[in-house]
Design a protein that fits this description.
The structure holds 2 protein chains of 2 kinds. Chain A is mainly alpha-helical. Chain A is built from 15 helices and 6 strands. By secondary structure, chain B is an alpha/beta fold. At the A-B interface, helix 2, strand 5, helix 12 and helix 14 of A face helix 1, helix 3 and helix 4 of B.
Amino acid sequence: MALALPLYVSEVWLRVFEYAMVGAVAAIGLTLLSGHCGQLSLGTPFFMLVGGTAYAALAADAEAGSDLVGIGLPPVIAIVGAVVVSSLAGLAFAPVAGRVSGIYLAVATLSLVFLGLYLGQRFTEFTGGAATGRPAPPFTIFGFSLTTREPELTVLGVPFGAQERMWYLFLILVIGGIFLALGAVRSRPGRSWRAVRDNPASAAAMGVNVARARATAFAVSAGYAGLAGVMMVLWFGLLKADENEFQGSWSIAAAISLLAIVIIGGLGSVWGAVLGAAFVFGLPLALRLLVPSVPLLASITEGSGGFTPSVITAFAYGSLIVLVVIFEPGGLAAIGRRITARFGR
Amino acid sequence: MKITRSLVAAVTVGTLTLASCGGTKSESENTGVTDDTIKLGVLTDLSGPFLELSEAILAGNEIWVEQVNASGGVCGRDVELVVRDHGYDADAGVVAYQELESQVLGFMHVLGSPINAALDQNYLDNETTTVALSWSSFILKNPYIIVPGTTFDVEMINGLSYLMEQGQIKPGDTIGHIYLEGEYGENGLLGAEYFAAQHDLTIEKVKVLPTDSDLRNAVTGLKGSNVAAIAMTTTPAQTLNVAVVNQQLGLDVPIVGNNPAFGPNILTPETADALRNVYVVASATPYTSDVPKAQEVADLFEARGDGVPHAGVPYGYAIGEIWGQLLEGTCDDLTREGVKKAKDEADSLDTEDLVAELDFSSPGSPATRAVYVAVPNIDTPGGLDQQGELFVSEDAETYRAPEQQD
């Protein structure tokens, strides 16, 4: 189904799904860190910015007369490089993450968002700055672009433009991300993370190197965030530093959205993170598209009563979080498990 | 296992069947134009920080549409606006653009610099002529972008020229410039620095963030440097703060602000006195103006009985007027290509002085360099008293904008 979707769905809906996929990849990283290793982090947008910037700098060609840094590596290598760079950034933060936990760690990681805001606006030769940003280098394999419409391609009578191609690229990245995460959860690193989460002292007694387990979790999570950052840059076709700390792709708002995803999805559940991303990242955009064509919604948003689609979605996912926390702390994942258990019998 | 396999088979067969009758997605030549309507898109901020401004500009657009449709439309067709809210979020703006792009001929206006930055490449790819409401001269690089009026750098040059003509500043003086980090602030600073270089002034730069609400330290520092005036490329709240501190410290120097540095909401009975030193420079008329067309638009706006008087209303009307004239210039070729051509040929577009005469024919150069100077007054609807006629200084004429090509 997912493979054939671009044949039927319009570009604009593909864009919405792709945006949800960006959120899914970042949230998978966060759910590993918070759900399995027990470390609450609000720093994900910072690592996304690092990843996105690394991709743009590594993949872009250096141009004469431009201040922008460009290494000119093939995009595939640039993506890998971006993930490595952001993982290293996560590792660099690990000494802090090892010392504090819980709400203190959340506050400590929040500082990363401010750091990202400063660095993004300061080092414009890498990020392009907050004013105009820099164009995203297209993702090409053997000269075939997966993020722009060159060269032209038509499949079964449907013109395959930028969005149709990006859909497949993102699908591969998300599925790859899911499998790696599921693997990590089921095997040795996942077990050591959970041991550290439940009781660091007993984990240490059983031979788990607590500091190392925490550092790995942070690095892995930052790597996922970095990949999501690359996807974000490709999705926009642009890398741009935020104007302020409250709004934008790498802002506090993004950090809180990602946290909302993992809570709604069910802390620790990889599939839950994917579903949660569909809600938190996909729903606001989808509602904006639906509102003008659904009479009931349109009548609510009519006039300037303030009930615009963005306000409605803010209410929708705000109340969803409250409902989840009260009635089903396991999130969408727990609901899913209950349904499969019933049908399994 | 069996179930999985048959499921895969069913899905594959289903997919192929659907695919064979697929191909429903297509592109047409003159998107957004039928025999009796022309559709134009609006992407604006109806739920974010620029709600007040956005609603006013949109109201101005709508008044123009109502008026033009009542008198027979454009090229014998009715104009229809398709409005979407982006809440000042670039991601929402991108998706809304993608939705509207296949329905409209061009964009009546797209508000917000992060949104216009994110859409820059799309305008080129889709050839969508767009009135971009982010008045920085950096964005004029894109040939599909129309900035209706002048840009922040030219506003600032004119503002400082005005103070100099009034004798409030003189060569050799020091001027404080408080500006926001980012495109808006940098562009304003560009103008101030140009003017300073022409007149042997020293600029004392103070860079601030949009969230800095208390600028007392900055103003105290400027007082120490003995500034003769303060230039502001900031938010309205920051302008208010600086104006109040300016008075409290007994500094009492004139303050010259870019268009977005003022909003009617900062003008209250308590703040009116502190704001009397502020000169607001904009390429559009204030809401209350001596310009007859602006009075006419204000009357139509009040007849609607909805919304707060704001300089955005006549400005929105002027934007409609610009589109109307571009479309009239290409009635026999109502395609995106035709609109672009009409825009490139428009060298003296007239909006009956709502904004100065506009010239879109020289790439990269602001469409006009003339501005209105206004002073806050609490008793005036819209909050601004216009100071004299359209004003353009010699320095503004000779200034070379960053993307200017000729």
